[in-house]
Amino acid sequence: MCGQNHCHHPSPCRCDGRMERFLEPCLLLLLHEGPAHGYELRTRLERFGLAPDRQDPGLVYRTLRRLEEDGFLFSEWETEGGGPARRLYRMTADGEKLLHEWAKVIARNRARLDEFLQAYRARFGGDS
Q: Could you count the other beta carbons within 10 Å of the beta carbon of residue 86?
């Protein structure tokens, strides 16, 4: 078993939904709501079904770094407060454009998934 609650086949899990691809638009949307630190973003990802205890923190930070390298966000060190310096991430105008493109892609994929589920249910019935 792969350890996923929904999965009933031997490892490795092949029905993981490739959630790492979904991470990018989620991070962009969260940053559109306002600047945030990496840790804060990790906890807020739970809103999209990406629970912090099931995330690879390195994947989140690598995605943030890649988005920054590509010009979709920028970060600066925040040194205020008593703790260690932390990166504060902000979205750029290009990041907002990418977010809109992601929304279009997700809408198209949702339509495809709905078609699949409709055909699946017609064949097998039920709410699976």
A: 16
- In which residue are the tokens 């999965």 written? 7
Which of 94, 78, 87 lies closest to 28 in space, CA to CA?
94
pLDDT along the chain (128 residues), means of 10: 42 49 94 96 93 85 96 93 89 97 94 95 84
Mind listing the domains of the chain with CATH numbers? 19-124 (1.10.10.10)
Which ranges in the chain belong to alpha helices (H)? 19-33, 38-44, 57-69, 93-124
| Model pTM score | 0.79
Query: Rounded to whole angstroms, how far apart are CA atoms 39 and 51?
Result: 12
Strand order in the sheet with 36-37: 36-37, 86-91, 73-78
Determine the straight-line distance between the first and last CA of the chain, rounded to whole angstroms.
Answer: 19
